[in-house]
Amino acid sequence: MEEQLVFSKSKHDEINQQLDMDRIPKHIAIIMDGNGRWAQKRHLPRVAGHKQGMQTVKKITIAASELGVKVLSLYAFSTENWKRPSSEVSYLMQLPVRFFSTFVPDLVKHNVKVTVMGDITQLPEATQKAVKDAMADTAHCTGMILNFALNYGSRDEITQAAKKMAEDVQNENLAIADIDESAFGKYLMSAQLGQFADPDLLIRTSGEERISNFMLWQIAYSELEFVPEHWPDFDEDSLRSAIITYQGRHRRFGGLKINK
């Protein structure tokens, strides 16, 4: 056990030495995958994985805030997740209530503001209340934004944005000539994130290499990092390692860097 602790500390120190604090991504988005498989691997019910995953959300939120990340977007519940067994969906709907009831004081302490994108009107009343209360209780915070994608699907987001834009054109509040990428972005749910609406880095845990209908418009030029750890095993060093990988890439945004 002592040797393991020494090895862990050595690895932690090595990661910290490699991390460039001047190049921390402003917006990190995470597809939190693998809760159920984490539980099954340990012969536990799937909900045990979701419960442990909630603790990981707390750890990663604080770690990201301390690193200076401006926005942390977490894919908490997709529009497709309603297809899961009703007992699991019911448990997932209870998680925001449990999460915010214990974690909001820590969020306020770390100056973290909660925002949500997705159609929360379809959620149970208790879940809606927990989410709205968390946003209200942290509205004054000016540090990192913890942005939950809750009952969110990117294709639905884009479809709804197109409808709203079409209505504005029909009502003569928007001219067709004024429609461009910037204008369209203002109709998306991520518009509330302002200049940080587009993630610099997208991480997906559990080894799966899919986007799964998450922020399709916004990740056009994001760096993608697929890591093997299931979400409950993803820790502060896992986050730092993903950032180090990001820092080792050259973001050209479709152009070329010319050395003079």
From TrEMBL:
List positions binding Mg(2+): 33, 223
What InterPro entries does the annotation carry?
UPP_synth-like (IPR001441), UPP_synth-like_CS (IPR018520), UPP_synth-like_sf (IPR036424)
Which Gene Ontology MF annotations are present? Answer: ditrans,polycis-undecaprenyl-diphosphate synthase [(2E,6E)-farnesyl-diphosphate specific] activity; magnesium ion binding; manganese ion binding
UniProt lineage: Bacteria, Bacillati, Bacillota, Bacilli, Lactobacillales
Q: What organism is listed for this UniProt entry?
A: Limosilactobacillus reuteri (Lactobacillus reuteri)
Protein's recorded name: Isoprenyl transferase
Query: What do the Gene Ontology cellular component annotations say?
Result: cytosol
Q: Which UniProt keywords apply?
A: Magnesium, Metal-binding, Transferase
- The catalytic site is made up of 33, 81
Protein's UniProt keywords contain Membrane:
no
Q: What is said about its interaction partners and assembly?
A: Homodimer.
